[in-house]
Specification:
Blueprint: E1 14-15, H1 17-34, E2 40-44, E3 50-54, E4 57-60, E5 64-70, E6 84-92, E7 97-100, E8 107-108, H2 124-140, E9 146-153, H3 156-160, E10 170-171, E11 182-183, H4 189-204, E12 209-213, H5 216-225, E13 234-236, H6 241-249, E14 255-261, H7 262-269, H8 284-293, H9 298-302, H10 324-341, E15 346-351, E16 357-362, E17 384-386
Parallel strand pairs: 7-9, 12-13, 12-14, 14-15, 16-17
Antiparallel strand pairs: 1-11, 2-3, 4-5, 5-6, 6-9, 8-10, 15-16
Helix pairs in contact: 1-2, 4-6, 7-10
Length: about 375
């Protein structure tokens, strides 16, 4: 399932997997207790809004019932948009709501998430929502019983391959998510939540340092350079540098490495903590001033104005160790980072379009033993300078 283009006009909100699972839970329990099919069901979201879900399937026997609905994520490019979310319910004698394994829903295998290891990856708010509708239906039907729930997602294991679940130690399927029940189109909430969870998982698994990076290309290089670091130690920040640094600043990490592509590094050096193209752009005059400060002749500095993108700076300034322009750029980047994280030691790795790297260390004292990179980078030169 590819990302859908941004539509013209106002964007339409949708509903989370948690809201869908809650609707199916309520409908399935109604079907079981009343022994009749339920075509649609209305639930209250955490904010109080009532929403009606049309059911795709509703089947029941004397002992259990199953209902499903098709997730509508609105205009958000959500990988679970159009997925069939279902719930199978049965009664039990525990007096409690019991969550049983369900096909396509992941299993938590690493500590650090809000759900314990060994549990299904159904987040706390959706669990609360499901418990609430169970209590509501039981009361209306004058039934006192425990209820077993099995949430399922058709093709959930395949959909999970397009998410960061494996990185977080969630295997075998997707997570049932949502805090409001509503998916805001093209919002950053889900991505930022994955960043926060990623750092929490790294900490819970005993890591004192993490490697944050902008995406697949930079991470490929960094995973080779820091091959001894487990997968949970690599966190993709996308464009949300500020939120990632804030999470790091509030954590007990001892140090971190930040890999960043050259174009994003220029934006960061200028002070932009969100590097999305609709939030920031590179300032050629500012970069020209930086080159002047680094001691380059006027003619080469003036040539910056002819470049179409920041990634082409390597045409004017060779991407090699001890090149003054990149040292100056790295220092400016660190100045912006330091304003958020304080004196936490930071290793900054600049990466060009050819996936060569230059790295600079800031704040590592003489008694600090940093996580050392492997000796052989995946491609091109690599240098580590202490500043």
């Amino acid at each position: 399932m590819g990302l859908r283009p941004v539509p013209d006009g106002p964007l339409r909100s949708g509903y989370t997997t948690g809201a869908c699972a809650t609707a199916c839970t309520k409908a399935a329990l109604w079907a079981l207790l009343r022994q009749e099919a339920v075509p649609q069901v209305t639930i209250a979201l955490p904010g109080g809004e009532e929403v009606t879900f049309i059911l795709k399937e509703c089947t029941f026997t004397a002992s259990q019932a199953f209902c499903s609905t098709i997730k509508d994520a609105g205009d958000d490019p959500d990988v679970t948009h159009g997925a069939e979310i279902g719930c199978t319910v049965s009664l039990n004698d525990t007096g409690e709501v019991v969550f049983l394994p369900g096909e396509g829903v992941g299993l938590v295998t690493l500590p650090g998430l809000a759900i314990a290891v060994g549990e299904q990856a159904i987040n706390p708010v959706p669990r609360q929502m499901m418990r609430a509708v169970v209590a509501e239906v039981l009361a209306q039907c004058h039934v006192s019983s425990g209820v077993s729930l099995s949430i399922s997602v058709a093709n959930g294991a395949q959909l999970a391959q397009k998410t960061l679940n494996a990185r977080l130690g969630i295997v075998g399927g997707i997570s049932i998510l949502g805090t409001t029940g509503i998916v805001k189109p093209f919002s950053a909430e889900a991505y930022i939540a994955s960043i926060v969870q990623g750092i929490d998982v790294a900490l819970a698994n005993g890591l004192t340092e993490v490697v944050i990076n902008s995406g697949g290309r930079s991470e490929k290089l960094l995973r080779h350079q820091f091959a001894h670091l487990p997968a949970v130690g690599f966190i993709q920040y996308g464009n949300w540098i500020g939120e990632t640094l804030e999470k790091i600043a509030g954590s007990p990490l001892a140090a971190f490495t930040m890999g960043i592509m050259l174009g994003k590094a220029v934006k960061l050096a200028q002070g932009s903590l969100n590097t999305h193209s609709n939030q920031s752009s590179w300032d050629k005059e500012w970069v020209t001033g930086l080159a002047h400060e680094a001691g380059y002749p006027a003619a080469r500095c003036a040539a910056i104005g002819e470049l179409s993108m920041a990634g082409r700076l390597t045409e004017l300034f060779p991407f090699r160790p001890a090149e003054p322009f990149y040292e100056a750029l790295a220092r400016r980047c660190y100045g912006v980072v330091h304003a958020v994280t304080g004196p936490l030691p930071c290793r900054l790795v600049l990466i060009d379009a050819a996936e060569h790297s230059l790295a600079y260390e800031f704040g590592f004292g003489p008694n600090f033993t940093p996580l050392a990179p492997s000796e052989e980078p995946s491609a091109g030169p690599g240098s580590f300078a202490t500043a």
